[in-house]
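Hi V.,

Quick status before I head out on leave. The structure for the redesign project is tokenized and pasted below; the design run finished overnight.
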């Protein structure tokens, strides 16, 4: 019986230095060491699964204490050079070395040891709790493979042993000693040096045949043949805004549509620069190579010819600028796609570093302020912005609701008849929007007084502003968010919050 763990890097980079080497030596660790994996699983236990008993964790980690066999994808090595701020000297030049791999490929580590059902359950829980592996920018998906899943005959395994040639030195990885002492996993480099040791206590070096870089082919975003189960697709990614140097202030919350539209344009620009197509991010259909769709029919390929046909559903991305700290200033943005986001789409969004206008638009958008953008996290909307997603029967407007149609009130109507007509119109329009989003019908719709017309209600400066109303919605049963309805709802208008 064997125990196999699979590692995958959705951003295609593994940032980690071999034990005993400084960052600026640019010595990358390959293959990933079991010592690093044990420390990562130990940290995941302490931070995200503290309810697991220490004895169970020790027994589970003891299963992976031996030197494993590796199944490695093609890879190459690269680095960047940049300056980091320093308190004493101002700035330091840093070498950031990393290993490049195909984001779709998995690294398999297999141990010739049998784990009990309880130990497998603990390992599976710890693996799924790890969000990065190596340095913090190495976003990782780690999972425990099922019984017999890694026994495919086409897999090539790398076993411990010295290099076959003198010209190529062996690859050395750090492996924990068995039986495992959990206290050794928290030892820092400084503590090891103070003890006059080169190798940390509780670990040993194991040699493997030399691994030479072999650049992977250009990424094709088709479903990998080795994935045996449907992968999880995050539905949202949360971005954070930071003010630029001039002026050093965040934009007003009433400009949410302007920044939602600017964010959407930045995403489309990144797609074009990479020659990629995404119905989820663009909201438009595209003519593509027939092989560019996966088994679910989801677009996931190279652009052949764009089309301007808008999608008639609301499963594509919503680019919503948010004021999460309620200071009337935009501090975050949520890109939310009910149909889910692929890895390459997450990579495209994560590459956005700032929002700014084209030079020809700056003279018309005087209120626009440049902001820097940082990716915080991705996952389910309820985990990223719970204040907009918790189930509730009553919802109120955050930004004005803009119906697609106009109410028809005749001059002959009395004030009471006109009010009833307007209320029926609002109920009809809200239910029409809820139906297209597979949400239950609303029981009651009430106008909410407020300065709703001061919100920006158009995407571009040349567009006409749509109508806008603040509403309070009441349902018969709790509804889970996000709830965004009406015109421009994919750019921040018509957003509601639970009450």
């Amino acid at each position: 019986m064997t125990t196999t763990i699979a590692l995958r890097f959705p951003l295609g980079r593994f940032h980690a230095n071999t034990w005993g080497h400084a960052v600026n030596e640019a010595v990358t660790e390959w293959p990933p060491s079991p010592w690093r994996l044990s420390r990562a699983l130990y940290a995941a236990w302490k931070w995200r699964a503290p309810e697991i008993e220490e004895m169970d964790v020790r027994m589970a980690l003891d299963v992976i204490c031996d030197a494993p066999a590796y199944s490695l994808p093609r890879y190459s090595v690269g680095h960047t050079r940049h300056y980091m701020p320093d308190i004493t000297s101002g700035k330091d030049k840093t070498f950031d070395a990393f290993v490049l791999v195909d984001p779709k490929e998995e690294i398999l580590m297999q141990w010739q040891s049998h784990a009990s059902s309880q130990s497998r359950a603990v390992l599976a829980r710890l693996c799924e709790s790890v969000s990065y592996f190596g340095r913090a920018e190495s976003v990782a998906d780690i999972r425990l493979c099922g019984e017999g899943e890694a026994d495919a005959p086409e897999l090539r395994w790398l076993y411990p042993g010295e290099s076959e040639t003198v010209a190529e030195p062996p690859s050395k990885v750090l492996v924990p000693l068995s039986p495992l002492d959990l206290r050794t996993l928290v030892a820092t480099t400084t503590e090891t040096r103070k003890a006059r040791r080169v190798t940390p206590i509780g670990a040993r070096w194991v040699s493997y045949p030399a691994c030479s870089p072999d650049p992977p082919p250009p990424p094709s975003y088709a479903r990998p043949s080795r994935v045996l189960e449907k992968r999880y697709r995050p539905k949202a990614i949360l971005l954070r805004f930071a003010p630029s140097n001039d002026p050093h202030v965040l934009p007003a919350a009433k400009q949410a549509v302007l920044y939602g539209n600017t964010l959407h344009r930045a995403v489309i620009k990144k797609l074009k620069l990479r020659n990629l197509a995404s119905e989820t991010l663009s909201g438009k259909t595209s003519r593509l190579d027939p092989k560019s769709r996966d088994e679910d029919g989801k677009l996931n390929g190279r652009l052949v010819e764009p089309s301007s046909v808008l999608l008639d559903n609301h499963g594509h991305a919503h680019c919503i600028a948010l004021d999460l700290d309620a200071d009337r200033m935009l501090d975050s943005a949520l890109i939310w796609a009910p149909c889910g986001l692929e890895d390459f789409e997450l990579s495209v969004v994560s590459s956005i570093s700032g929002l700014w206008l084209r030079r020809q638009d700056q003279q018309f958008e005087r209120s626009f302020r440049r902001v820097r953008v940082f990716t915080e996290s991705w996952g389910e909307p309820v985990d990223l912005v719970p204040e907009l997603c918790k189930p509730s029967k009553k919802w109120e407007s955050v930004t004005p609701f803009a119906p697609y149609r106009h109410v028809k009130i005749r001059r002959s109507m009395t004030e009471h008849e006109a009010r009833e007509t307007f209320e029926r119109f609002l109920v009809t329009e809200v239910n029409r929007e809820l139906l297209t989003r597979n949400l239950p019908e609303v029981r009651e719709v009430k106008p909410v007084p407020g300065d709703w017309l001061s919100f920006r209600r158009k995407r571009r400066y040349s567009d006409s502003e749509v109508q806008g109303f603040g509403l309070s919605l009441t349902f018969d049963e709790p509804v889970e968010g996000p709830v965004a309805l009406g015109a421009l709802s994919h750019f921040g208008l018509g957003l509601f919050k639970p009450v």
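Above is the designed sequence. The longest strand covers residues 75-86.

G. will cover questions while I'm gone.

Best,
W.
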